[in-house]
Every structure is written in structure tokens, then in C-alpha cells.
Amino acid sequence: MTTLTIHCELLVKEEDLMNYQTLVFKNLDKAPFGNNYCMITVWPNWQSYIPEVGDKGYLTYNSVTAGEDTYYDRNSDSIVKFNFTNLVFEKFVKEQDNSKKDIIL
Questions:
Q1: Which residues 6+ apart lie within 8 Å of 74 measured at CB?
Q2: What Å distances lie between residue 19 and 44, 50, 52, 63, 64, CA to CA?
Q3: Phi-psi bin for 74: left (phi > 0), alpha (psi -120 to 50), beta?
Q4: Residue 50: partners with Cβ closer than 8 Å, 6 or more residues away
Q5: pTM of this prediction exceeds 0.85
Q6: pLDDT digits (tens, 9 = 90+) for 65-81
Q7: Which of 38, 52, 85, 105 matches a 20 to 30 Å C-alpha distance to 65?
Q8: Where are the domains of the chain?
Q9: How many CA atoms lie within 13 A of 55 on its CB side?
């Protein structure tokens, strides 16, 4: 499992009937070999701030590989390998607009 953090903007947000959310971000970093967009999955009942469309900030996500990376399954009380390769949401920190703050000299 690889954990990555990027500066990005949320473009699209979609939720399916099983409460999985799919988020599409535009990468605002100027990396020469990076992807311009990434599609991230948010697990149902994820306990973290989920951004709204248009939010800019810093996204941390995990790149998981099927058959190699594992997670704890509380229902079976065991470690299970992922069945699908995916990018999985970890955390989003919203960028603050500093232009509207008072400056005291």
C-alpha cells in the first residue's frame, strides 16, 4: 500500500446505492510525470470530512493492489487481501482563503 498526498480540487462527487462514494479530483500539483486527474473511492460510513464539489485542499489517499495489500475485516476478525486495485480516500484538509483575513502590523 502506498500513501500519497496531493494538492487538488474536487470536480465530481457521486454516491451509489451501497453508500460508496466516488470522488474525481484535479491534481493542482505541477509534477512532470503525475496524473492530472484521480478517481478515489470513499468507503461507506467513513468518519472524516468529505469535500464538496469545488473545494480545494490537500488529499491523502492510499493506492491498494489486489491480492497484495490487506485490511482488517471486523466481521470475520481476520486480515483479508483486497479483491480490487483501487485508490482509497484517507483524509482531506480544505485549503483556507487567507486573502480575507485581517492583517495586523
A1: none
A2: 5, 13, 16, 20, 20
A3: alpha
A4: 13, 21, 23, 42, 89, 92
A5: no
A6: 999 999 998 899 999 99
A7: 52
A8: 2-96
A9: 17
